[in-house]
Each structure stands twice: as structure tokens, then as C-alpha cells.
Amino acid sequence: ARHALEVPSEDVALVDVARPTLIIGRKKRPEAFLAEFEWYSPFKYVTGQRSLNWKDLKNQFQQVIWLDTLPFSEKVSPQRQKVIWDSLGQFARQFHVGLTGSGNPSPPVEGGQLMARYPGSESERLAVQVLCSGPNLEYPKRILRAAVDTAEVNMAMLARIDDIAYNAIRNRAMPGCQVMVIHKGQVIFEKAYGYHTYRKRRRVQLSDVYDIASITKVAGTTLATMLMYEFGDLDLSASLKQYYGNTKITLRKDTSSTMILHDNPELVDTLHLDVPNLDELDLSVELIDEGIVDELPFKSSTLAPESTQVSLPVMPTLPDSILSNIQKKSAELTGQGSASRPNKSVSEKKVPKVRSSIAVLSRTSNIFTLTPAELLTHHSGLQPGLPLRGLLTPVDTLPLSDTTRYWGAPHPDFPIEVAQNIFLRQTLQDSVWQLMKHLLLFKNKPYQYSDINMVLLQRTIDTINQASIATYLEEKLYGPLGLQHLCYLPRETLPVKRIVPTELDLGWRRQLLRGYVHDPTAALMGGIAGNAGIFSNVRDLAILGQLLLNKGTYGQKRFFSPETVVKFTKRRKGHRAYGFDMPPERGTYLISQYASDQTFGHTGFTGTCLWIDPVNDLIFVFLSNRVHPSSRNWRLNRLRVRQRMHDAAYRAIGF
């Protein structure tokens, strides 16, 4: 191929994916080039037209890519062209790429790189890979998109993912989903299915983002912890007290609302609410699906609902960590878990069955005595979720004169937006921290999956950095990686139409949640929390997975040392690494039966999962909004959608 002879030398300057790029080309858009470039960096594509304000463009972009010959309209005079060239010649980084295979390349600009000609769609993708990763494309560097080698991958087996997805949508396990499979650094499957909601008004696109729920624990909090550990800012074995100024806690007399009863170690009910009958709740899903109830908007001036709105039943609001335990248990009770693994000795301790929490709770508890390692492995002794019942009063049941909690418009005293036109008083967020500080710990610190572990770790990271974990990750990781979709608070950076809605919240916020975090604990913390809050598409999550498979490098950059990646992804206790979940040594779980015992990742309550298998060099990402319109719809588990898709991915590579 001609381009193979014209690939530039190793020392060619690479496109900085952390910076927005201006791409200037002809009127006919090079779709393959642009679709590939979207994987790497934000960009704006323009043609050389008279109407463009080149001065403003130069202020917005720090690098420019010229495609083919001079892309100016014939109406642009040579004098005007020279002015434009002189202006854009001040760009610090310039690249020139020939895509048509004919004609002269753009006039060279001092300091610019003259790249090769890349005719054809496959070569257009190669051109992007060379620009962003360099001419040496040997794996691993970045995720590549090219024709799949059918001798190595069974495409018919991958096609089974289609059948599983369409069957799940027909059975209303979810309105739609995104699926991606990466093998040996190459995309072998990438597809979006269904719609945002059952009303079928907007199809799911690969650029749409989902609430990934507890995958935030690894894609956000754990990766931030790895960075802190890498820079020497956080000691995994040191107690948290060294990072806080005031660690003194005066224990008050506990009431039933601040303690938990472990009548069943699997079905934990922090808020003392009965677990509803699953079949009955499925009926409520159908009612909402048919459009009897859609959403309950609020006026900006008041929290009272519109007079024309239907009266909604009040459903109990449970933290997602509590419902996750219910979710896993329901799958086991109905025999819908994944294939059982061989029985082995289990090193983790189960929460003891007791009639009263007093028998197992330490009266000298202090959360500041915990270590990051204990939080990461969920062996801290903390309960699954915070006792939030008193803070989650349905907003439309409050009297209009009650402004102690919520406000219907932005206000200095109410800065926390928990839903559309619902703003939370700052002091309530402080109350959440006080609740956390006064939690009692189980004496022997048995294994107990808990949102509080990651929330406490996130707050510690924020305290050390004196900045939000969202800001820290964007500066240190997400930005340099060129992630364009993964973010906290998506309504601030993305069009709302690209955000897939989650639940019609009948228990607290009384509206359809779209771009507001589903988990109530994370919502009370302003949408940025250690346990939930990130929204993403499958592509950006796959990039994070490849970063870890590459032992800390991606593209030409190193973010973690190999030792740090190994330390955090190594099995510690039971099915937990540091932050990451792993296949259980026995029993059932939401993962393929073929996954190696070194596979790591996490699931999310909203119907998501990310699994990274270093033994078989496989990444599987699945995102859905199975909680729409009701989180009490467990059909995704009953149909074993995630497990069966994951199985199909493994069988496609020879299992």
C-alpha cells in the first residue's frame, strides 16, 4: 500500500488528544477519518469558507490538521487565502494529511508536519492512528478499530449478542443498551440497541451517555486513589485521621434509625423498610410504560406539582447499595445467576446473623481509624448505606411554607441541584457528613459491600487535594486520555438529548431523572460522590479498561506504573481487589462463566458492567438503563443478559 511507504519517522509530533483540534478539509466530509478521530480527541471540522472567523478559531484551538489540498472555496481570493494562511501559521502544532491519494498536499507551513497520503476508508482510520499514536502501531498503545480477523474471531458467535439484546428489549428488561467488546486492543464488537425509553422517541446512539452507577467506584474513586498512591499523596495502610484536622467524635445515644439490623446477611435493610414483592412491582412498571405516568415536572417558583398532574404513589427510596444486595439475592433465589464456579475455600467473613446490632457494633467506633485499604476491600466494618430516611422526604409532600430543605430555583443557600428545579440546602449535605462520622463499626470488620466506603475515600481524596475528585480526575486522567463523554454532572457539558434517563423517582424527587445521578446518597452530595455520579458511553469506559490492560499506559503516555496496576488489581480478600470486583471463588455473579479468575471490574445498579480480563486480553462493557422507569424491574438479572452477552464474547474468541 502506498501509505506504508510514506509513514513519517518515529520523531513525528503527535496530536495532543487532551487539546481540542481544528480539522480543515473539503466540503465533502471524510467520514471515516472523522469517526475515527472522535475516538481520540474533541474536534471541530470546517471548510475554508469566507464566512468563518479565523481569528476566533485560532483562539479556540491550539492545533490544526489540514486535509488534502488547500480547502478554500474558489470564491476566496488568493489575497484572502494568504491572510488566512498567515493567521493559522501561528498555530503551535500543525499537521498535513492527504486523504484522496491525488493532487498536491496543502502548502507547507513552517513548523508543520507533512504526513502521508491515506486514500480509502481503512487508510483514513490508519491516518488517525498514526497522528494520535505514532507510526509504530504495534499493540498495546491505543484501542484500534479495523477490519476484524475472522480467522481469529467467530463473528457468528458475536452475532448472538444481537439476539440477546433484542430479546431483552422485547421482554422489557431494558429500553436499550450499548455493548462493546475489545480483544487484543482491537474493537471486535460495538453496537447500540433500542431506545432511551419505552416510548421509542429517540434511538440509542453510541455517543449517548448512561448513568453507570457503581462503576463509578472503579472508573472514578479507585483510579483517583491509584493516582494519589502513585504520587505518594495517599498511604493505603495509614489511618484516615492523618488527613483530617478534626477527628474527634462524641458518640451520642443511638436510636433505631441510626443502627442496622442484620436479620439476613444478604438482604440488608438499612432503612427498616420491607422489600416489596418483585412480581407486584413489575405491574407498576407496565403502568408507567403505557404512558399512564410519565414524569412530574415542578414549577421553578415553587415545589408544588402542577395541578393537572396525576397523583403519584409514594415508593420507598433505598440507597442503590441496599438494592444491589436485593438484586443479587433475587437472582440467586430465582436461579438466574451465572454458572456456578468450583467450590473453593472462601477467605472473607460473612456478616454474622444476629438479632440486635448492639451485639456486633463497637461502642468506641471512629471512622477515622479506618485505612484506605480497608475501604477499598469493603472490610471496614461500615454498614451498606447511610440512614437517609429523614432526608428523603418526597418533595411534593412538603408544605409550601417549608423552605428548610428544598428550593425551586438556584439560591445561595440552596446550591445543590438534586433534580430539575429542586435545589438542596447546603446544611443538609453537611448533615450527611455528620451521619457518616457517627456511624458505628462492626468489631471484627467482616466483609460488607458498602457505598459508604467509597464515599469516605472520595471525601478523603478531596480533603487532601482541596479540590473535587471530578476536577482532579479531569486534570490528571480524563483530559489527557481525550475522554469526551465520561463525566460527572453531564447536564453541564453535554446536550440533554444525549443523556439516557433512568428512573421515574416516585420516592423522593418525584420526576423522571435525566442527567441527575440515580443514587440518592450521591445526589445529596451534589452528584459527585465516591459511590456513584459518573455518566459515560461504552467507548470511554473501554479506554479506561485498555489503560489498565496496558499496565498504566495509553497512547504515548504513562499514567500509572505497572506495579501500581498490579497492586490494585490483585485479588485481596474473597472476590475483592483494591476497589475492583472479581469473580467469586464459588457461587453466582453477574459475569461470564469463562472469565479468568484474574478478571477485574465492577457492575452498576442501573444495569451496567465493565469487565477486564488480563489473561484472555478481553474487555467487555455493557451499559443500560434497566431501572427505567422503575428500579424494581429485575428482568435484566432474570434473563441473565449481561452474563450471556459476556459468554458470547468469550465463545467468539475460542471458548
Describe this entry's structure for a reader.
- There is one protein chain.
- The protein is of the alpha+beta class and 655 residues long.
- It contains 19 helices and 18 strands.
- Helix 8 (216-230) crosses helix 14 (469-481).
- The radius of gyration is 26 Å and the shape is globular.
- The two termini are 35 Å apart.
- 46% of the residues are buried.
- The model is unreliable at 1-11, 101-117, 253-316 and 326-359 (pLDDT under 50).
Pairing-aware structural class of the strands and helices? alpha+beta
What is the CA–CA distance across the termini? Answer: 35 Å
Summarize the main sheet. 5 strands, parallel
Rg for CA atoms: 26 Å
Low-confidence stretches: 1-11, 101-117, 253-316, 326-359
Give the oligomeric state. Answer: single chain
Percent range of helical residues: 25-40%
Morphology:
globular
Tally the beta strands: 18
Strand order of the largest sheet: 2-1-3-4-5
The average pLDDT score comes to 78
Strand content: 5-15%
Number of helices: 19
